[in-house]
Amino acid sequence: MSTPPIERTPLWRRPAFRALIIQALLLAGLAALIAMMIGNALTNLEARGITTGFDFLGERAGFSIPQTLIDYSGDSSYARTFVVGLLNTLLVSGLGILAATLIGFAVGIARLSPNWLLARLAAAFVETFRNIPLLVQILFWYFAVLQALPSPRQSMSLLEAFFLNVRGLIVPAPVPEPGFGLTQLALVVAILAVVALGIYARRLQQRTGKALPVYWLGSALIIGLPLLVFVASGIPLAWDVPSLKGFNFSGGITVIPELMALWLALSIYTASFIAEIVRSGIQSVPKGQIEASRAIGLPGNITLRKVVIPQAMRVIVPQLTSQYLNLIKNSSLATAIGYPDLVAVFAGTSLNQTGQAIEIIAMTMAVYLTISLVVSALMNVYNARTLLKER
């Protein structure tokens, strides 16, 4: 008895084939839309006599920037302007992430404190600053606080070396002298020694159960070794102390009020969200863990540092990453008070002068995308290390 032939399903009736055709059509439609947008943009640019390309980066910028972390003048190129703006953005973002993390963790832990007053103050901090728009907070710190400071002649001073006035915070500038390189080398050696000590202490604890005071030993190394070399080298560091000459100060380092206002607003606003993340992370740790640590006689600070926080970080880190990314992107609000970040000096002044909108905006978007992806990747690596490992 012969087997009847198997009927093959027509190709167009197969779900996988239909899905492939639909995806191909959608991809073709998207490519056609992008091509149409690019063609339309090129046509409009050509009609207005605007050339495309990145040759403008080598042209003279012709404007000054109030804060520069590298050498810059009005004769510098637009490429130099881009680097200056990028460094200013990285500076305020890095300072904001550091301050927001410290404040957020402190406030988040304080919210769970058994002290009634401390817990209520922490709750008031969170509910106040997270419910006021960030832009309003930036304007408050800049116009209501920093712009209300006295003029340079009536500056508030500390030890006749630190001055605070409407033009910013002026502090002494360090001037390295011959031999200071040995102190820097000692600092690098101390950091490497602390890393090696941490690895050794972890392996020793896993093998014998004995815990070394890594924090105290590490602090002593990082502070003591460079300080010892610094003194032994004859204190090879001088200070350029600012002094009032005319209507302004000369010498020292000036922290402009725009940076101070933006840093304060970003740090406090983001810290209010981080505090809630930390609180939820700590509360996610089973109470039995805390009770067990108390039962074996662990002090409260050791319980928090060794038992609660490591387990809470599994909940904290993913949400913390989002807040870091938000802070970096929110730094673009600096244009509201004139802080010379990437958006202000490159996507603002440079764009207005050159008219190269597509190139400048594309470069700006690429920078923020790259920074966000790098931060996200680093946090994902740390998150992977904090996950529980199944055995």
UniProtKB/TrEMBL annotation:
It is a multi-pass membrane protein. Keywords: Amino-acid transport, Cell membrane, Membrane, Transmembrane, Transmembrane helix, Transport. PROSITE patterns: ABC_TM1. Residues 86-379 form the ABC transmembrane type-1 domain. Pfam families: BPD_transp_1. The chain crosses the membrane at residues 20-42, 90-112, 132-149, 181-201, 213-239, 259-278, 360-382. The keyword Ion transport does not apply. Its main location: membrane. It is found in: Cell inner membrane; Cell membrane. It comes from the Bacteria. Belongs to the binding-protein-dependent transport system permease family. HisMQ subfamily. PANTHER family: AMINO-ACID ABC TRANSPORTER PERMEASE PROTEIN YHDX-RELATED, MEMBRANE COMPONENT OF AMINO ACID ABC TRANSPORTER. This is Amino acid ABC transporter permease. It comes from Halomonas litopenaei.
